[in-house]
Amino acid sequence: MYKHNIMVVDDDKRLLKLLNKALELANYNVSTFESAKSAFKSLDESIPDLIISDLMMPGISGIEFCKMCKADKRVANTPFIILTAFNDKKFLISGLDAGATDYLVKPINFKVFLPKIAAILKQVNTTATLFSVLLVDSSPVLLNVTKRKLLEAGFFVTTANRADDAIECIHTRIYNLIISGVELKGMDGLHFCKHLKGSVFKETPFVLFTGKISNELLEKGVAAGVNDFWEKTVSPEGLVAKVKAVARQHDFSKDFQGGLEGHLTDMSSLELIQTIGINKKTGILSLIGPDLEGHIHFCDGNITDAATAKSKGESAFFSLITLASHGSFHFIPTECEKDIVIKEGFQGLLMEGAKLLDDMGRILGQAIIATEKKPKDIDKEEETFFSHIDGKQTFEIIIGKSCVEPYRGFEILKNLVSEGFVHSPLEEEENAGKGPDDLF
Question: Could you tell me if residue 439 is inside a domain?
Answer without folding.
Answer: no
